[in-house]
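PROTEIN DATA CARD
Card holder: Alpha/beta hydrolase
Chain length: 297
Origin: Streptomyces olivochromogenes
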Amino acid sequence: MNPDDRAESMDMRRGTTFYPQESLMPPIGKPKTGTIVLIHGLWMTPRSWEQWSDRYTASGHRVLAPAWPGLEREVEELRRDPSSIAGVGLGEIAHHYEQTIRGLDEPPIIMGHSFGGALVQILLARGLGVAGVAIDSAPVKGVLPVPLSTLRSAWPVLGNPANKNKAVGLTPRQFHYAFTNTLSHEESQAVYDRHHVPGSARVLYQGALANFTPRATTRVDFRNNSRAPLLFIAGGADHIVPPKVNKANARLYRKSSAITDYHEFPGRSHYTVGQDGWEEVADFALAWAVHNSQAHA
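Structure generated from the sequence above:
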């Protein structure tokens, strides 16, 4: 088999690339925690986790998927009136999840998609969780690659500075390019109709300008040796956060002795948590998190 046709796994502890994916796919043992917290990303709601939540619950876990502040309503309501989303920032969102997690009776596995992945990094840096999985993660402060496909995906919001404190949505065409580029137009429209909501433009601006902001909310200590293990999962065909962005993000943690791993699923879009084959991604994420949480004191 051609290595390019296999999922790519990079174990940052050894700086080694493994083929096939089983290199980082340990069997699920006894979990250190029964609780999993799922964090959605921009232009999405907790509904985006519905399949993962059902699957993990069926495996015996307690699953929580709290909404960002202002997104506590159903998708259809948020589309009709997105005013509660406007102006919400990453600091407020991170604080919301931190308070939720600190209120639990046990430290959870924390998984996040897109900006939810950046939030996973922030929360782990604050000493939370027993393991973290950042899926198609938006970059934190210090990540340098800005691919053209990322700029094109974000330009509907960033292209107009007047959007900064507004809730701004994507058109079906823009969504198809940014999120669901490996799906047909019909499949993409179905995902759009079920999941898409206007997003806080402020969040996107904070992410985009982090490298020019001294005290950016997305600043984390990459040298932190005591944080929980962290896995980056990338989709090989992702437009808005291409694999090179996730790889660059993962490499920033090389000077830490804490576990940092990277795994790439070829041919998958930014909507990897919901497109066909999502079960493989979900099972891989859980197996890795359970296995590595046991190594985190």
